[in-house]
UniProtKB/TrEMBL annotation:
Domain Aspartate/ornithine carbamoyltransferase Asp/Orn-binding, chain residue ranges per copy: 148-301
Name of a matching Pfam family: OTCace_N
Annotated family: Belongs to the aspartate/ornithine carbamoyltransferase superfamily. OTCase family.
Source species: Oxynema aestuarii AP17
Transmembrane segments: none
Protein name: Ornithine carbamoyltransferase
Location within or outside the cell: Cytoplasm
Gene3D superfamilies according to UniProt: Aspartate/ornithine carbamoyltransferase
GO-annotated biological processes: citrulline biosynthetic process; L-arginine biosynthetic process via ornithine
Alphabetical UniProt keywords: Amino-acid biosynthesis, Arginine biosynthesis, Cytoplasm, Transferase
Segments forming domain Aspartate/ornithine carbamoyltransferase carbamoyl-P binding: 7-142
Length: 306
């Protein structure tokens, strides 16, 4: 039996190192058509936040597996009228086979996992974005043929994407550096967790020096400077974060074979330039496609189709 069958996926750290590598292997095999499992199950999407890639990639993934998807828009369900979380979770547990949730608080996600017996997947919270990290690792491995020893530098806000990257890179032997302004550092608990997961085999660095962080890097990664729910801070953050912009000039400090990643949507001219996202070193569109392949492997695994 697949060790992930029936399990929740709330954090990258829910997986062991071996399970994470196996999931990436499965995603690669499903992408190239080596295996094509069937899974006629029903996926529910309960999204409190707007989504393009996550919603579409999960939907296409379950359809390609032979299953169906139900969009549980909170605005047209009793959730919007204050139905208690435990009641909603226990009812959805009777209807669905797996539930992907995109919400604000990690505690909300854990609440659904506590009350629903079906697998619950983190499709993004303010703390983590683990499905994005799966696609990121898959893209890096496709590019360099391996993960161990590769150096990734994340530039920008120490947000949910940075948190999942810290954990995922530490688990797979990728050197991870986070360059961010003083008051926008990643969560200390997550950094400490990443350091423990790295077991001294790869570096985990948090710095304010963007250029120093980029030197010797094979991957430059960025995200928007103001995440969903922080739109009112966007304008005042621009001058603070501008030294961390992924540009052709900053890219020149990285290794010659370095690639550019962005989890999207991108604010061109802010966290990334047109030249960087559209240039020959960009793997952003491969990265976006890999959301579907990684999530299809995840769904097949937790649903016991492989």
């Amino acid at each position: 039996m697949n060790p992930l069958q029936g399990r929740d996926f709330l954090s990258v750290a829910d997986l062991s190192r071996a399970e994470l590598h196996s999931l990436l292997d499965l995603a690669a095999q499903m992408k190239d058509g080596t295996i094509a499992p069937r899974c006629e199950k029903v996926l529910g999407l309960l999204f409190d936040k707007a989504s393009t890639r996550t919603r579409v990639s999960f939907s296409v993934a379950i359809y390609q597996l032979g299953g169906q998807v139900i969009d549980l828009n909170p605005n047209v369900t009793q959730v919007s009228r204050g139905e208690p979380l435990p009641d909603t979770a226990r009812v959805l547990d009777r209807y669905l086979d797996v539930l992907a949730i995109r919400t604000f608080a990690q505690e909300t996600l854990r609440g659904y996992a506590d009350y629903a017996k079906i697998p619950v997947i983190n499709a993004l919270t303010d703390l983590e974005h683990p499905c994005q990290a799966l696609a990121d690792l898959l893209t890096i491995r496709e590019t360099f043929g391996q993960l161990e020893g590769v150096t990734l530098t994340y530039l920008g806000d120490g947000n949910n994407v940075a948190h999942s990257l810290l954990l995922a890179c530490a688990m797979t032997g990728v050197n991870v550096r986070v360059a961010t302004p003083e008051n926008y550092l990643p969560d200390r608990t997550i950094v400490a967790q990443a350091e423990a997961l790295a077991q001294g085999k790869s570096e985990v660095v948090v710095t304010r020096d963007a250029v120093a962080a980029v030197e010797g890097s094979q991957v430059l990664y960025t995200d928007v400077w103001a995440s969903m729910g922080q739109e009112d801070q966007a304008d005042r953050r621009i001058p603070i974060f501008m030294p961390y912009q992924v540009s052709e000039a900053l890219l020149s400090h990285a290794e010659d074979e370095a690639i550019v990643l962005h989890c999207l949507p991108a604010h061109r001219g802010e966290e990334i330039t047109d030249g960087a996202i559209e240039g020959s070193q960009s793997r952003v569109w491969d990265q976006a496609e890999n959301r579907m392949h990684a999530q299809k492997a995840l769904l097949a695994s937790v649903l016991g189709a492989v």
